[in-house]
Amino acid sequence: MNSCPRLVSVAVTGPFHKAFTYHLPDRQAEIAPGTRVLVEFGRSRAVGFCLGASRVKPDFTTKPIIRVLDTDSYFPPDLFDLCLWMADYYYANPADCLAAALPSVLKTRRSVDLVWAEQDNADIPDAIVSIYKPGRRLADVVKEHLRQNDPALLKRLIDDGQLAENWPVVEETGRAVISGYRAVRVDDWQRFFAKRRFRPEPFVGQQDRSELFANGWTEHYVRAASSAGLLRPVVTSKPDSILDFVPPKEGVTDLTLLDGQRAVFDSVIGLLDSGFSSSLLHGITGSGKTLVYCHIAREVLNRGRTVLILTPEIALSGTTLAYFRGFFGDKVTVFHSAMTQRERLESWNGVRRGRYRIVIGPRSAVFAPLKDLGLIVVDEEHDGSYKQDDPSPRFHGRDSAVMRAKIADIPVLLGSASPSLESYHNARLGRYRLLELKERPGDARLPVVRIINMKKERLHGDLPNLSFPLKKEIDQRLEREEQVILFLNRRGYSPQLKCSGCGHVPGCPHCDVKLTYHKAGAKLSCHYCGYLRTAYECCEKCGGSRFQYPGTGTQKVEEQIARLFENAGVLRFDSDTASGRKDGHRMLRDFADRKHKLLLGTQMVTKGLDLPGVSLVGVLSADLGLDLPDFRSSEKTFARLLQVAGRSGRGSSPGEVLVQTYYPSNEVIQDAARQDYLSFFDRELESRRLLSFPPFSRMVKFVLSTADGDKLQSQTASFAERLRGRLERAGLESDILGPAPCPMPFLRGKARRQLFIRTKRVQAFHGYASELGGGADAFWIALDSEAGD
Q: What does pTM read for this prediction?
């Protein structure tokens, strides 16, 4: 009589918010949660993740798991639990959340290759040798046999170093080297070499290049055997290749903490062994928060734990990386989506094996497989870059970091000069411990900020983006060999291109947006879907060749100021010029080395830059973004202005900031000019209270999209009606705002509509919404809220 099948829950990547039930074959040993499995899914096979034993016995015949792909789960327990929490809280597919934590090589059906670390088999257990048959790779036999019968022994062989993991990565970079070759398909060797003069002896495992050539191999035969699939190259990277573009900052270990910094340090250190806690460090710009992080991290490492540091954008984390490399050397690595496949695998493997004990990176670094995690730091916690809107999973990196700390039962430290309203509100209520740094170290002082009324002070002619006072101050700084930063939060040459003959403005065929004009190459591009038109030299409607360039972007300003300040050496720093992280760090290093005197950029110049040579910052248009239909627009504008002002005056020269605006009396701009966070917070919080916006409620956004725009309006209305009825029957107090077209109603080839739910009971709301379907091709939810409340 057959025993009852062992049922497991499996999540498969796709548009689902649930798991599916399968059973383990009779000979298959139990598998750990998080292990990848190959399953039959519909009419095809798919890679899924085991979520654990199924708690519900289905009323249908379950399918067996076809194959277990991993020796063990790659997820530390706290990371696995975080992924499941994210799936529930952000209404995401559990498989999408788990897949986000793995390098791309593990998002396929391939399992890791195992090779013997030692060439002789003296230490191989007799039970394994007895099942080996000539003509097969011994590691393959071990993997197949032990994965089903004794996974604990297989894991021990790997942990002890007898079996080595050889990852099937095909990508090679300029720093990658082939250290050796592994033998595969040994039974085909004799037939392949039958017509060749060379008769190599088959070998088990792998040999380095010197061994191969000593045994008679040549480059020709190595290439031929590799092409035939008889040899597989073993590719390794040179040590520290991931971070060689950010040199360690010298002398940082000799920097001592000032009294205010020491007080913050002592407060956090006192929390390290006390379980979960949340602290908010409100430190003015240039107050030395990074140095405090380093000292705290050193104490955590001394206690045998690891550290996770989140930063808004990796391209702007040069100061953080340089400080941490100066303190901890090769114990530091980075995690981010722009890494090559090999770099990410190297970093991920190094973290798993304990080589790297500190991980630094943007929101995706929250998935780092750190073991014995002791502290999480979220720097610039207010920054909007922590929020991922696309692709799935859509999550907030800061809130997810808070939850990972809660799951791991460790402290989390949030830092910012302009904290988010939610975080500072939590500190006011006592949910977070409030820590403060109110002074800059040494002789550095906060800069003097002046507001320039562009209605009266702007230059005329072809230089309308500069004012008389700003031009005068730039001239003086350049004469004194000091440096200047100019900030304009709009890239490109012009937001659009207009035909002078017929008035036609080219638009994106996939999105409801006008194409941005880039003068270099006469390109028109969509900054949302990536659509590009090159060599646009005549109007597509009338054939005219005369155009107008309304509006201003960084490219146009670069052209103007290069004429106005001929010897300044203007450096434009935006996502067009600093598309790669190495390009960005190289450009900032050149500016820090005084190779350029004037840095012009978008919001990329507002944060993370520590440039002592900068004594003047000019904000070319403080008004951009202030009037957007977003209840956070005031908060975002204030933070940008406060942050960019903080780039000035970090050295011995006094700093000054000139803020150009057409609304000089605007309260947000006035508060930013005074660098008065508390006044801004109190006024904005009261406004949110009156309108019942976060942090006094939770906002849930539903976005429905489909290629068939004619049906979308009725589908969205039907969805909203079902949702409204369900919430009314449940007695859940909430407001439904919409449905209405999205700000960009047509994006990436699909029509889009949205609706918002405002509620104070978001967890209860999840239960009522989970069974609803939109009827559209795509349906997703985004939470605009704070975890841990």
A: 0.82
